[in-house]
Write a structure and sequence with these properties.
By secondary structure, this protein is mainly β. It has 5 helices and 50 strands. Strand 20 (318-320) and strand 21 form a beta hairpin. It is flat and about 160 Å long.
């Protein structure tokens, strides 16, 4: 037994008739009018409503009711492959609408006709073949041959997939071959070749390289062959296309499409966009190519009336807020609704209801009916501060807060509308900062993807966070947010643990400890610390300045608005993520001194292009012969060192000479003022301040290189003693005496 919905009978458009056996009980059928044929390319539409569409036959009774005895008429249905037909119009709530339109003709044969005639194959292993239809070349590229399958998992290189438009054993109008890793075998890139074969000889063959193509794990394979009046066009996997010229007179000689090689065919045959029509005898016909674009062929249209959930028919079109509407709307009620009774004189809404779920809706947008969460309000007489909100304002009172807003008033369908009076001023008072339950009075409903924001005043941040501003977004009817509703705005104080140098930087020093002693608010908003790079390094300033030239060694780090310590540098400004800069070594930009390769000395360093010569780099020069050294030191090695200013400590390297005394003279005395100055023939010594040599020499004593090539004092210099005056002082004046406590003895 069939059951039908009983509605108030729908008001079918002129020329349409209610088909009562339709299970929804509210569908009327009719044909395209002559006016629609000339003005409406979709054939089934109206300027007054959105309730018309092409008819979709669901059973034989429907077919019998809608067939046109005067000729074929279009019905709903389209195809991308000849044996698969689907509705073009979405029908999510219709009764018994299939995803695939099966054969609905009395003969039950139209969807299998091509397969039965040999023009399609399905689920076959190679070798496989199906008939070729030359009419595809007359379809304006709307039809083609389609082959869907999967590559074989083995022997793909030895059993190459091949597709042929077969004429005879030695003649192919087209031959397509897939090559694993190219035809030449010396390249990992896959390719295919496309050409023709005439009397066993290749013609017009071209190789197409499949750059970046990787055979998918699913091994999926697609090939389409289409044609116009001069070229066969092949597309592989929707990306790579090649053309092959042909003689149109040879089309009639092609008998079939042959497929061989390592392939499994899921579906093959004629393919392309198609449409359905209904013959006068009730048979459903499959149409392709230009047939689907016939402008004089009418369509069977169905009018599905829209009703409210109380069973009353919607009235379209109608005017709401001075705008004409042709379908259900959700304005102000946030659920699709429509008028069921309009005033006959002015068209105003007198009665309305909520639309059932399959009615068309104009611009349906999900909304958030409830207000979004907000941070906590500031407690009175504390350091806390209130936030700024994007959807209401806050005013401080003596013992409460005034929250207020101006928003668009919600309208009711039957109310008169005045475009000059659409807003309300709303306010609430809050004495308990933990109770804002009546804030919904301030709320204006937000739509999908609308965002609200809350921001602290400058110098304040949400407690225990680095957030100055937080947001909430309306998604699928509810609010998505990532902040804690108990947070409140508090004064900015940065962490007492201050930033350190990055891992790839030289360490720097700062004055944080000194600031802590001298300033109790040293880490509050806008307070700064001074950072200094170590000796021999400078501040890296990428893309802005030449560090080697300007040599900036000091920078400030500020407690910024987001409670982050942030370097005060042009390229790291708020609100960008604070990144501590690097201190990089000064480089000696000039190369070190080179020396002549004469066998007497060599340099223990090799220049490497691109490698820096940073501060403290040491270049060693060494005399190669025993007993030879550098004149200024007597040593057989000397150094060139990169200094903190980016220069080398020496501009010349002495020549190695043979030393009269090969061994080094003894080291000098220790203490302030003491020195030893090497000489090839004699080395000069000096005692520390206030001392003289014990042999009476002052200020210098010379250690001489003797003819036997040893130093006069080879182990240590002459000892030092305190200086003293040996001559008698002047005579004492009259009535004076001489007091000389440490007078030297005569001995």
């Amino acid at each position: 037994m069939d059951f039908y919905c009983l509605w108030t009978p729908p008001s079918c458009p002129d020329g349409y008739a209610l088909y009562k056996p339709e299970k929804d009980g509210r569908t009327c059928y009719g044909l395209t009018t002559d006016e629609q044929l000339s003005t409406d390319e979709n054939h089934c539409s109206s300027t007054d409503h959105k309730l018309l569409r092409k008819a979709l036959p669901k059973d034989l009774f429907t077919i019998d009711a809608i067939r046109n005895i005067d000729g074929d008429v279009f019905i709903e249905g389209e195809s991308i492959f000849e044996s698969f037909w689907a509705p073009k119009v979405e029908r999510p709530y219709d009764f018994n609408v299939p995803e695939e339109i099966k054969d609905s003709s009395p003969e039950r044969s139209w969807t299998d006709a091509l397969k039965s005639a040999g023009f399609e194959i399905e689920n076959q292993a190679t070798p496989a073949h199906f008939k070729f239809d030359p009419s595809i070349c007359e379809s304006g590229l709307t039809q083609h041959i389609g082959i869907f399958g999967v590559f074989g998992s083995r022997r793909l290189a030895s059993k190459k997939p091949v597709v042929k438009l077969f004429i005879s054993e030695d003649n192919y109008l087209l031959k397509w071959v897939f090559h694993l890793g190219s035809s030449s075998g010396n390249n990992d890139t896959h390719s295919f070749t496309l050409g023709a074969v005439k009397d066993g000889m290749k013609e017009n063959e071209e190789e197409i390289w499949l750059e970046d193509y990787v055979i998918p794990s699913s091994l999926e394979f697609e090939l389409f062959i289409s044609c116009d009046d001069s070229n066969l066009i092949v597309n592989f996997n929707g990306k790579w296309t090649a053309e092959l010229p042909y003689n149109a007179t040879n089309l009639k000689d092609v008998s079939e499409v042959q497929i061989v090689g390592s392939l499994n065919i899921l579906k093959g045959g004629l393919s392309g966009m198609g449409c359905l029509s209904l013959a006068p005898n009730g048979r459903v016909l499959a149409n392709f190519g230009t047939t689907c674009m016939e402008e004089t062929k009418k369509s069977v249209c169905e009018y599905q009336a829209c009703y409210t959930d109380e069973g009353f028919e919607c009235r379209f079109p109608f005017e709401y807020k001075e705008v004409e509407r042709k379908a259900c709307i959700q304005d102000d009620l946030f659920k699709p609704w429509c008028p069921t009774k309009l005033n006959e004189e002015d068209g105003s809404i007198e009665e309305w209801g909520y639309c059932i779920e399959d009615c068309p809706v104009e611009d349906f947008i999900p909304v958030c009916l409830d207000p979004p969460p907000i941070p906590r309000l500031a407690k009175f007489k504390t350091v806390e501060d209130n936030f700024n909100s994007s959807w209401f304002q806050i005013e401080n009172k003596t013992s409460s807060y005034r929250l207020y807003n101006t928003h668009i008033r919600l309208h009711y369908p039957t109310w008169p509308f005045d475009a000059n009076n659409i807003t309300d001023n709303v306010e609430i008072f809050v004495a308990d900062v933990n109770d804002v339950s009546n804030i919904s009075r301030l709320y204006e409903v937000q739509e999908e993807n609308d965002t609200v924001s809350y921001s602290c005043q400058i110098g304040y941040v949400l407690k225990d966070s680095h957030d100055i501003e937080v947001t909430a977004v309306c998604k699928n009817g509810s609010w998505e947010y990532n902040f804690n509703e108990t947070l409140v705005c508090v004064p900015v104080y940065c962490d007492e643990i201050v930033p350190i140098a990055p891992n790839d930087s030289m360490s720097y020093v700062h004055n944080a400890e000194e600031r802590k002693i001298n300033d109790t608010d040293w880490n509050s908003y806008l307070k700064e610390l001074t950072y200094t790079c170590p000796e021999g390094s400078v501040l890296e300033y990428p893309n802005v300045t030449d560090e080697q030239v300007n040599q900036i060694t000091e920078f400030q780090v500020r407690c910024d608005a987001d409670r982050h310590w942030r370097p005060v540098l042009d390229h790291i400004q708020f609100p960008f993520t604070p990144i501590m800069p690097r201190c990089i070594a000064i480089n000696c930009t000039d190369p070190p001194i080179d020396i002549e390769s004469n066998g007497l000395a060599f340099r223990k360093w090799t220049e490497e292009e691109g490698n820096p010569r940073p501060y403290a780099t040491k270049i060693v020069y060494q005399c190669t012969r025993e007993g030879w050294g550098y004149p200024s030191s007597g040593l057989n090695t000397t150094l060139s060192v990169c200094l903190a200013d980016g220069t080398w400590n020496t501009t010349t390297i002495e020549s190695c000479v043979k030393l009269d005394c090969p061994s080094q003279p003894p080291p000098g005395h220790e203490g302030p003022g003491a020195e030893r100055v090497y000489g090839l023939y004699q080395t000069r010594y000096r005692c520390k301040n206030g001392y003289m040599f014990s042999n009476g020499d002052f200020p210098y004593w010379y250690n001489k290189c003797l003819p036997n090539r040893v130093w006069e004092q080879p182990d240590q210099p002459i000892s030092c003693m305190k200086r003293r005056c040996t001559d008698a002082p002047p005579d004492a004046p009259l009535a004076h005496e001489i007091i000389w406590p440490h007078r030297p003895s005569d001995n």
